Amino acid sequence: MGYDINVGSAAIDRYGTTTPGYTWVDKNNRANAKGTLTRKQLFINTAIAGICKVGLFSAVGNYLTCKQRTAIATPGIGLQEFTVSLPVEIGDYIGIYHADGKVDMDIVGGDGVWFLANDQMNCVNVEFNFEAGFILSEYGQGIALKGAPLMELLGFTIVPS
Q: What DSSP string describes 89-146?
């Protein structure tokens, strides 16, 4: 299957790991189209024993809002792939919360990550911490909305006069 949408960073084995009990949002590679995110990949370093949550976020500076979220079954170790169905907009960022276990991450080479303690998957305009250079091993792909006007696909709202 071909994917029109991509968001996040390659889910690969990296040098470092996330800290459990935090919500992490990858600033690298914002969503490139409007549609539905259908596939989520993570590279898990240490097993996550319970449910973890993934979501899509918007950001204004360091203030984030989680727009869409879903729980995924307990992931194993290494590259893990999940089927999801999350509406995505151009410019959305991908994020994860896990109470235990660890996801691979590098501390150099990326645009950075936002992070905040606890489950922030219902946050609205909440200030997150930001760390420049970081890059998470989480990636999403999906199918772009077909048949919509080009301006809508580019994220513009058309208002009748």
A: -TT-EEEEEESSSEEEEESSSSS-EEEEES--TT-SSEE-EEETT-EESEEEEEEEPP
- Residue type (1 letter), 48: I
pLDDT band at 145 (very low <50, low <70, confident <90, very high): confident
Q: What is the dihedral of CA 37, 97, 127, 87, to 10 degrees?
A: 20
SS3 151: helix
The structure tokens 């949002």 sit at 25
Rounded Cα gap, residues 44 and 105, in angstroms: 10
Band (146; pLDDT cuts 50, 70, 90)? confident
The residue range of the domain holding 98 is 5-144
Q: What is the CATH number of the domain that holds 128?
A: 2.60.120
Stated as kind and residue range, the H or E segment containing 152 is helix 150-153
Strand, coil or helix: 63: strand
